[in-house]
Specification:
- It is built from two helices and two strands; from the N terminus they run βαβα.
- With 62 residues, the protein is of the alpha+beta class.
- The protein has one domain.
- Helix 1 links the parallel strand 1 and strand 2.
- The longest helix has 11 residues.
Length: 62
């Protein structure tokens, strides 16, 4: 089971706040962001085409 801490962020879905999380990790010592995992640590998966999701993430970070 996954658990959030100062180097781990869990996201059920990609939101506009993803950029903020990435920047926060870049300004610290790095970290991991897991998408498709609830705040309780349960893997729920994603309901999206992987290529589309990758495109969304890429454009949010531009």
């Amino acid at each position: 089971m996954f658990k959030e801490d100062s180097r781990t962020e869990l996201k059920e879905v990609v939101t506009d706040k993803l950029e903020e999380e990435v920047i926060a990790f870049l300004n610290k010592n790095g970290g991991n962001i897991y998408i498709g995992i609830s705040d309780s640590g349960k893997v729920i998966g994603i309901n999206a085409n992987i290529d589309s999701l990758q495109n969304i993430i890429y454009h949010q970070l531009q």
